[in-house]
Design a protein that fits this description.
Order of helices and strands: EHEHEHEHHEHHEHHEEHHHHHEHHEEHH
Oligomer: single chain
CATH topology of the largest domain: Rossmann fold
Shape: elongated
Strand order of the largest sheet: 3-2-1-4-5-6
Structural class: alpha/beta
Distance between the termini: 53 Å
Strand content: 5-15%
Number of strands: 11
Number of helices: 18
Largest sheet: 6 strands, parallel
CATH class of the largest domain: Alpha Beta
């Protein structure tokens, strides 16, 4: 096995400066940090990233903040104070990547217009994450994950027709963070060839609209609106959740005609269904979804979850158990592969999952989750500020977390 020294951190030496909050930008920069980049998170000295205070379930820290902010150094500045702005300007001058997801117009008001930054620093890669992108009639609208998902249609195809729902995880935020990440990686390649940085803009609305692709095609070219149907798929049948004899929930489905024939003949012991011309194609099965769901419901209701899953496995069909988040904590696919790791934080060690990619020869960076302003003094000293100058910045309120009265 290779030693730690032999392992590769692909982005080692890349400096990322981020003025970020909530989920989308922090999720992007955390992943850059996972890959080895140095990430300096610039936070307001008055409370910092507001996601710090969403809740206090992780030994006093927010679940969202702990998830999206390891591998970072926290520098607390007042960006309305001239000296605070000057510190940020010096950090950006040294940076390879600058990321921000402030409210619409806020970056420009404090001198962080991306085009102007790149004009001063031609090698800089700028990333602006917003609700609706650079322009258009909604560009100035405030946007959060739920608002964007509602506007872009994903809530309308989630839940049931009577009760539309937001997906449980913040898909718009996560998607924007991942698109920003891949764009930064591409921009670093481009800069390696051209010597020039890039200006990247990612809108949450555009992310959700892209991910709505199949539903938008259905709406444009099909029968019109796509209706939600709970734990199922509007495009495939049979495919859904079924209650078992022991009170568990089996998730079972088919994705093609061959699987349908195996389900009906080998699992349900209903070769007559496999031979029935009314169910020959997926489109026909979708039209008769309720009939088929009734047959599977009856079958599952007479068997335990284990019996159902063994029958599906024997027939080569995909299947799952409906797990709660608490049950996923001890899922053997995570525990037996060592996916959980301990990360340091201001409140002590916390458990976190390794990044999803498994890459031979790479070592994930695994540095602590920072306290607000934890690295302010060290970073100021690195920029050349003397101890008396640092003390003055703290005294004037330009830097350092505000102290409770």
């Amino acid at each position: 096995m290779k030693s730690t020294e032999d392992q590769l951190r692909p982005l080692k030496g890349v400096l990322v400066v981020a003025v970020e909050q909530a989920v989308s930008a922090p999720f992007c920069t955390r992943q850059l940090g996972d890959l080895g980049a140095r990430v300096i998170k610039v936070e307001s000295r008055e409370g910092g990233d507001f996601a710090r205070d969403y809740d206090s379930v992780v030994h006093g820290m927010s679940a969202h903040f702990v998830w999206a902010n390891r591998n970072k150094e926290s520098v607390a500045l007042d960006l309305k104070h001239p000296e605070g702005k000057e510190v940020l300007a010096q950090l950006i001058a040294r940076a390879d990547v600058f990321v921000q997801n402030l409210a619409p117009g806020a970056a420009g008001r404090i001198g962080l217009d991306p085009a102007e930054l790149r004009a001063r620093h031609p090698r800089l890669i700028t990333v602006d994450i917003s609700g609706y992108g650079r322009d258009g009639p909604y560009a100035a609208a405030r946007a959060y994950d739920l608002l964007v998902q509602a506007e872009a249609g994903s809530c309308a195809i989630t839940g049931t027709p009577e009760h539309p729902a937001k997906p449980g995880i913040p898909l718009a935020d996560i998607g924007a963070g991942v698109y920003a990440l891949t764009s930064v990686l591409t921009a670093l390649l481009v800069r390696g060839r051209t010597g020039k940085g890039s200006g990247i803009s990612v809108g949450l609305f555009d992310v959700v609209a892209e991910w709505m692709g199949f539903a938008l095609n259905q709406a444009r070219y099909g029968s019109g609106e796509v209706l939600p149907n709970g734990l199922s798929s509007p495009m495939v049948s049979p495919y859904g959740a079924y209650r078992t004899k022991d009170g568990q929930t089996l998730v079972l489905g088919t994705t093609n005609d061959r699987e349908w024939r195996r389900l009906s003949a080998d699992v349900l012991d209903r070769p007559d269904l496999a031979a029935d011309a009314r169910y020959a194609t997926n489109a026909e099965r979708v039209a008769l979804r309720s009939e088929l769901d009734g047959v599977i419901d009856a079958w599952a209701g007479e068997r335990t979850l284990d019996e159902c899953r063994k029958a599906a496995e024997a027939a080569g069909l995909g299947h799952a158990r409906l797990n709660t988040p608490a049950e996923v904590l001890d899922h053997p696919q995570l525990t037996e592969r060592g996916r959980w790791r301990s990360a340091d934080s201001p409140v002590g060690p916390v458990q976190a999952l390794l990044p999803p990619p498994e890459v031979s020869g790479w070592e994930w960076r695994w540095d602590p989750i920072p306290a607000l302003g934890e690295h302010t003094e060290a970073v100021l000293a690195e920029l050349g500020y003397r101890p008396d100058e640092i003390a003055a910045l703290y005294h004037d309120g330009a830097a350092g977390p505000s102290q409770p009265s």
